[in-house]
Design brief:
Length: about 450
């Protein structure tokens, strides 16, 4: 069978499944009989359909055609989530709690001015201003009443009629706005993190071998897919090894492939961060990682190319919401002296100190790692994974002190680097660190 024929039959099976009614039970054997294909081809297509979210397989229940799940925008909040965030009490419009809010408007202005900013799908954050409550509902917005206040019965009745939530919270307006902004920022940070499921093409065929396959079967699979390495699965479709074209050089065609595979492969899940998968590949010198579900069954593979493509795309995306490390580093600036030597200088703020008023050891380690990362990535493109940070402390640092971090590259190769970082307050050296890291080229 040629790769074109294989692809065509694969897509025919997917199309057949998509045309089934929601709730229809299907099986590998039934699909194979209906479309006159081998059970192996049918099985691979069924797994692909499961990855695409158009079928669901459960033990003892079998495989069922389901409605494809649509991705949820993680940076959006529902009114129900808002109620949970602010410990709110729903006064009316409970049937609309599932709705998504587009933005929130703070009602700290005259009613006439407020109305100009309110649109359908908004959330008005306001105190005990019943006219504003009524106007917001008529404009299609939900209401968050701050300060623990109630609202009029007529407003509640209108909220029920329009299915727009009216929520009361004991927090004040400023606190509520801060809490919601924090949650949205956290969600945007999570959205920025790319997971394995984002890096692997959802329509990609899963190329694998079975433990009882022979070398000739592998050679045929190589010609069909143009791949030169495959996960090997057992009878339960769980990865038990990895085999490459190099492993079978000189082997007899009738030899079982399990004689030549590398056993006990490392695996990742669809929710594993791509950066973590990349780190595993660099650390263990791997080119491929099997992707497994909660029961340990193979659902796909991710390669170094997938990781690199994903990390490159991530660097091109606009970033919203700062991580804790970015917030800590935001007060530091890059400085070069007359001889071109690099340093980073910043002020120790209240958020960086420990309970006794000195710079926290953990924060200092974070700053040292940030200085290292920026120094190395400034010299060469790629992604840096810190392996170890050894810090020697000489003097404590108080709040509002101005410190300088002076990095120097001790050793740098294609995949490894070692950097020393001296930390000064004025002329006093307060710490010295040695950082080792691995480089993952982009």
């Amino acid at each position: 069978m040629t790769s074109t024929e294989f692809s065509t039959k694969h897509e025919q099976i997917i199309q057949y499944i998509e045309n089934l009614e929601i709730g229809t039970r299907i099986s590998v054997r039934k699909v194979a009989q209906e479309l006159d294909v081998s059970e192996g081809t049918a099985y691979r297509a069924m797994k692909d359909a499961e990855n695409r979210g158009i079928v669901s397989t459960k033990e003892r229940a079998g495989t069922v055609r389901i409605e494809k799940k649509q991705p949820v925008e993680i940076d959006r909040l529902t009114f129900s989530e808002i109620a949970n965030i602010v410990d709110g009490n729903v006064l009316g419009g409970e049937e609309g709690l599932h709705k998504t809010l587009k933005k929130f408007v703070i009602g700290a202005m005259q009613l006439e001015d407020m109305i100009r900013y309110i649109e359908p799908g908004n959330l008005l954050i306001v105190g005990n201003r019943e006219k504003a409550h009524y106007s917001a509902l008529t404009l299609g917005a939900g209401i968050l009443v701050t300060g623990g206040f109630d609202t009029a019965d007529s407003v509640k009745a209108l909220a029920d009629e329009l299915k727009l939530p009216v929520i009361s919270t004991h927090y004040d307006t400023f606190t509520v706005a801060t809490m919601i902004n924090r949650v949205i920022s956290d969600k945007l940070i999570k959205k920025k993190i790319v997971h394995v499921q984002d890096a692997v093409h959802p329509d990609a065929e899963i190329a694998y071998l079975r433990e009882n396959d022979q070398v000739n079967d592998m050679l045929l699979r190589i010609s069909e897919t143009n791949h030169n390495r495959f996960p090997v699965v057992d009878g339960n479709h769980k990865p038990i090894g990895i085999i490459t074209a190099k492993d079978i050089i000189g082997a007899n065609g009738s030899d079982p492939i399990h004689q030549y595979m590398s056993r006990n492969p490392l695996t990742v899940t669809a929710q594993t961060a791509v950066a973590t998968a990349g780190h595993i590949m660099v650390r263990e010198s791997l080119e491929l990682l099997p992707i497994v579900d909660a029961s340990g069954r193979l659902t796909g593979v991710i390669s170094r190319k997938d990781v690199l493509r994903s990390l490159q795309n991530t660097q091109l995306q606009p970033h919203y919401g700062e991580t804790l490390e970015e917030q800590i580093w935001s007060s530091f600036k890059e400085i070069r002296d007359g001889e071109g030597r690099l340093s980073y200088q910043g002020v120790i703020s209240a958020s960086m100190i420990n309970p006794v008023g000195n710079l926290s050891d953990g924060i200092l380690s974070c700053l040292i790692n940030q200085a290292t990362a920026r120094t190395i990535t400034g010299l060469r493109k790629g992604n840096l994974h810190i392996d170890s940070t050894a810090v020697h402390y000489f003097l404590p640092v108080e709040i509002e002190s101005v410190i300088s971090l002076i990095p120097a590259v001790i050793e740098s190769s294609r995949r490894f680097c070692k950097v020393s970082v001296d930390v000064y307050e004025g002329a006093k050296r307060i710490a010295q660190a040695i950082v080792t890291a691995r480089l993952f080229e982009a």
